[in-house]
TrEMBL record:
Class of the enzyme per the UniProt entry, highest EC level: transferase
Family to which the UniProt record says this protein belongs: Belongs to the PEP-utilizing enzyme family.
Entry EC no(s): 2.7.9.1
Reaction(s) catalysed (UniProt annotation): pyruvate + phosphate + ATP = phosphoenolpyruvate + AMP + diphosphate + H(+)
Entry-linked NCBIfam families: PRK05878.1, pyru_phos_dikin
The PEP-utilising enzyme C-terminal domain, residue ranges: 522-875
Gene designation per UniProt: ppdK
Origin species: Paludisphaera mucosa
UniProt-recorded name of the protein: Pyruvate, phosphate dikinase
Key words, A-Z: ATP-binding, Kinase, Magnesium, Metal-binding, Nucleotide-binding, Pyruvate, Transferase
Cofactor requirement: Mg(2+)
SUPFAM superfamilies: Glutathione synthetase ATP-binding domain-like (SSF56059), Phosphoenolpyruvate/pyruvate domain (SSF51621), Phosphohistidine domain (SSF52009)
Listed InterPro entries: ATP_grasp_subdomain_1 (IPR013815), PEP-util_enz_mobile_dom (IPR008279), PEP_util_C (IPR000121), PEP_util_CS (IPR023151), Phosphohistidine_dom_sf (IPR036637), PPDK_AMP/ATP-bd (IPR002192), Pyruvate_phosphate_dikinase (IPR010121), Pyrv/PenolPyrv_kinase-like_dom (IPR015813)
Keyword ATP-binding: yes
Length: 877
């Protein structure tokens, strides 16, 4: 079979749609080569080889060897140089590249083919011994550390030592003789740690490097990255072997990385960095501070113009924003990589909308281009414009949004801190970040680095995740060992609060207040297209008028879940609630309930007003009563004092209410079954509020939702009672409002007997949190101890409380919907309205499922409403 694909000289055997086989890098190098973009010649060993390599216990298939030899000859022909030649040598890079980009996660080795003899030839040929020896020492370092497992620090140590001896600050200040000396020392480091000399046979180097790339596929960094990014199902990495071009031959050479549009804002400007006289990773490594790409226009006008042309050509060819790597060797431009550029949510929206205007793509494509979750980014808190912001330092704005957290100075410490204090916001502050840091970075609210540019590791990764990030903040001096730092000259300790503004690069000491953003401009336009495309409605979970208003701004088409218990916790309310719970008899309870009723009514009035014209689903009291009572002595003393009763009585009642499994105990519809007066009060408050708001000329559509129903009888009893209360209310008011009575389907038995339940229920709302809990037998509050192991061992693909388990819980949802709808139609000739109100209502994958099974709506938290709108549109496309 064909294991190797060549590219170069305006031709290629591969294409951009062969990413599975050639990896993203290989496929796009091929594509660029065949559309006439200058790319150094090379070849790609397929991901299939990687797969077979692991299948065979880390052995390459035999047939790879001759194919590589043959392809290498072609590269030699195209470049006019020979690999291992001592006069005019061809050098190559060996580069990783899987189907999905995993920036910096796997190994790349540059300058392969140099040895003690070849380096002399290269020095003579280029008349540049400094360059030749610099290349050689980099090769020994990269090859030693990535292929042979020598700690890079050992090489770095020699470099620093030599610079000290020579009393120079920059690598570039070292002379040719110095670098020759450095090569000697690097070779000694290599021999000491590997146990044999640095390989002098270029072919030997090449094969070891190829194996090293394949090995890096299963390296820690790569495995961890795939886990965090939930990347599964890939064959492996491809290996690209490519003729080297040199950005480090002098002032007429350089290297850079750029985006065809601004990946932060989406603005249609060329965006990136470059360094003169530099090679490979120098730009992203944050060692030297790179120049903005616009400056290249004055430094190398011809090259800049060529780059601008390529930028246009790539965008019109790929119809997508591209992230590119290039190198200039003695004034000649070469492209080394192109791929779809990672971008922030806001940038994704702007680019998609503007590309429709430019007629590069259509509206449907635009909708598909934006990852619903990435909208999070546009909904991130921003610094309150009214807040007093005293910026103590400013860095480069790398990923927008404001983040505030406790300073932690290493990724490992962030992981440890998170384990100990899962709710603490963390701000990770580092000199720079590297791929080892991803786990800690992932946990942080925001990332701040002292060095690095817009394309540095921290910036790229943070943007991908939609995390606020400021990089290259030179006003920071970190003392990691001492657990402290200074920002703009001011002392800060680990654990102190620091705030960053990733939108403009500001760094502030302390906590600065933030505000929520709104939907406008490109975002509003895209959401308009989404609304045209979708059929699934989107409601919100909101318990207060403020949340309801916010959700409406974000496009909510009603409330799918209003939790009444949240209203009982504030101020005087909790006192009355406790009186109700502690009452000895019905009369006592009724008295306390009468005190609570006005509060409830007021809250409902506010919510109905905010949702004028839209349906509002209100769930009756759901949690176990003990949640309203304090469990510690001090708290119980206080309650006793507040209520004027002996503390023993409080304690006794707490004891009586104690349950072994409160989540399976006296809660949900079981409460009004046992204490009907509680339900009566709530129904009365809802309907009286509805009448009041209707009298003000507004339109109210209340839906009373009874939680935790498992049998139709429960629902029948409570519905009958609610209807009786309604009649009373309407009679007293002399007017009526339309309303529905329905139920949550959150107990597996309810889903199984949905046909019976639908005879009573006028709507279903799937409470998938409890339904997941009860179907799996997982206590939602206790999964922390085992869920990571379950996901690691692939028992479950993801936490089923985040993304609906379609195979299991989803079956109950689908079946319940079908049976319920059918029965309602047959018995009452009515359409049964069905929705979902668990966390899943705002999870894009779960939203797609809800669309597929024909639900009427999903309901989610206000900030996820736009995300659900877009996900619903994508589901309908
Ligand atoms: P990554 O996937 O981590 O970006 P790359 O394979 O793209 O790794 O290579 C790392 C760096 O080396 C990049 O800056 C790239 O442009 C540079 N590089 C790779 N191959 C060559 C080559 N043949 N000539 C010059 N520079 C190269
Ligand atoms: Mg790499
Ligand atoms: Mg790259």
């Amino acid at each position: 079979s064909k294991y190797v694909y060549t590219f170069g000289g305006g031709k290629a055997e591969g294409r951009s749609d062969m990413k599975e086989l050639l990896g993203g890098k290989g496929a796009n190098l091929a594509e660029m080569s065949s559309i006439g973009i200058p790319v150094p010649a090379g070849f790609t060993i397929t991901t299939e080889v990687c797969h077979e390599y692991y299948e065979a216990g880390r052995k390459l298939p035999e047939a790879v060897k001759p194919q590589v030899e043959e392809s290498l000859e072609l590269v030699e022909k195209l470049s006019g140089k020979k690999f291992g030649d001592s006069k005019d040598p061809l050098l190559v890079s060996v580069r990783s590249g899987a189907a999905l980009s995993m920036p910096g996660m796997m190994n790349t080795i540059l300058n392969l083919g140099l040895n003690d003899v070849v380096v002399e030839g290269l020095a003579a040929k280029t008349d540049n011994p400094r360059f030749a020896y610099d290349g050689y020492r980099r090769l020994i370092d990269m090859f030693g550390s990535t292929a042979m497992g020598v700690d890079h620090e050992h090489f770095e140590h020699e470099l620093t030592k030599l610079k000290d001896e020579k009393k120079v600050k920059l690598d570039t200040d070292l002379s040719a003789a110095d670098l020759k000396e450095l090569v000697k020392r690097y070779k000694a480091v290599y021999s000491k740690h590997v146990g044999e000399g640095f390989p002098q046979d270029p072919k030997d180097q090449l094969w070891k490097a190829i194996m090293a790339v394949f090995n890096s596929w299963m390296g820690n960094k790569a495995v961890q990255y795939r886990r965090i990014e939930r990347i599964t199902g890939l064959k492996g990495t491809a290996v690209n072997v490519q003729a080297m071009v040199f950005g480090n031959t002098g002032g007429n050479s350089g290297t850079g990385v750029a985006f065809t549009r601004d990946p932060n804002t989406g603005e249609d400007v060329f965006y990136g960095d470059y360094l003169i006289n530099a090679q490979g990773e120098d730009v992203v490594a944050g060692i030297r501070t790179p120049e903005p790409i616009s400056k290249l226009d004055s430094e190398m006008p011809k090259v800049y113009q060529q780059l601008m042309d390529i930028r246009k050509k790539l965008e019109s060819h790929y119809k997508e924003m591209q992230d590119i790597e290039f190198t200039v060797e003695n004034g000649t431009l070469y492209m080394l990589q192109t791929r779809t550029g990672k971008r922030t949510g806001s940038s994704a929206v702007r680019i998609a909308v503007e590309m429709v205007k430019e007629k590069l793509i259509d509206e449907k494509t635009a909708l598909k281009r934006v990852n619903p979750d990435s909208l999070n980014h546009l909904l991130l808190p921003q610094l309150d414009p009214k807040a007093k912001v005293k910026s103590v330092a400013r860095g480069i704005a790398a990923s927008p949004g404001a983040a505030c957290g406790k300073v932690i100075l290493s990724a490992d410490a962030a992981v440890a801190h998170h384990e100990a204090h899962p709710n603490d916001p963390i701000l990770l502050v580092r000199k720079e970040t590297s791929p080892e840091d991803v786990a800690g970075m992932h946990l942080a609210k925001g990332i701040l680095t002292a060095t690095g540019g817009k394309a540095s590791h921290a910036a790229v990764v943070a943007r991908g995740w939609g995390k606020p990030c400021v990089v290259g903040c030179e006003g920071i001096v970190i003392d990691e060992k001492g657990g402290k730092l200074t920002i703009g000259g001011q002392d800060v300790k680990v654990g102190d609060y620091v705030t960053i503004n990733g939108t403009n690069g500001d760094v502030m000491i302390g906590q600065v207040p933030t505000v929520d953003p709104s939907i406008s401009g490109h975002f509003a336009e895209l959401m308009g297209w989404a609304d045209k495309a979708r059929t699934l409605k989107v409601r919100t979970n909101a318990d207060t008028p403020a949340d309801a208003r916010k959700a409406r701004e974000f496009g909510a088409e009603g409330i799918g879940l209003c939790r009444t218990e949240h209203m009982f916790f504030e101020g005087q309310r909790i006192v009355d609630m406790r009186k109700m719970i502690l009452a000895d008899d019905t009369a006592g309870r009724e008295k306390a309930l009468a005190a609570l009723e006005p509060y409830q009514r007021e809250d409902f009035v506010g919510i109905f007003e905010a949702m004028d014209g839209l349906p509002v689903t209100i769930r009756l009291l759901d949690p176990p009563l003990h949640e309203f009572l304090p469990h510690d002595d001090a708290g119980q003393q206080e309650v006793a004092k507040q209520l004027g009763i002996p503390v023993e009585k409080v304690k006794l009642r707490v004891e009586q209410l104690h349950e072994s499994n409160p989540m399976l105990g006296l809660r949900g519809c079981r409460l009004p079954i046992k204490f009907p007066e509680i339900g009566d009060m709530q129904v009365r408050a809802i309907l009286e509020a509805a009448i009041e708001v209707k009298k003000k000329g507004k339109s109210v559509l209340p839906e009373i939702m009874i939680p935790l129903v498992g049998t139709v009888e429960e629902l029948a009893i409570l519905k009958k009672r609610a209807l009786a209360v309604a009649e009373e209310v309407f009679k007293k008011a002399g007017t009526k409002v339309e309303f529905l009575i329905g139920t949550m389907i959150e107990i597996p038995r309810a889903a199984l007997t949905a046909d019976q339940i639908a005879e009573e229920a006028e709507f279903f709302s799937f409470g998938t949190n409890d339904l997941t809990q009860l179907t799996f037998g997982f206590s939602r509050d206790d999964i922390g101890s085992f869920m990571p192991a379950y996901v690691d061992q692939k028992i479950l693909p993801v936490d089923p409380f985040q993304t609906l388990d379609q195979r299991g819980v989803g079956q109950l949802v689908e079946m319940g919907t079908e049976r319920g709808r059918k029965a309602r139609k047959e018995k009452h000739d009515q359409h049964l309205k069905v929705g979902i109100c668990g966390e899943h209502g705002g999870d894009p994958e779960s939203v797609v499922f809800c669309h597929k099974i024909g639900m009427d709506y999903v309901s989610c938290s206000p900030f996820r409403v736009p995300i659900a709108r877009l996900a619903a549109a994508q589901a309908a496309l």
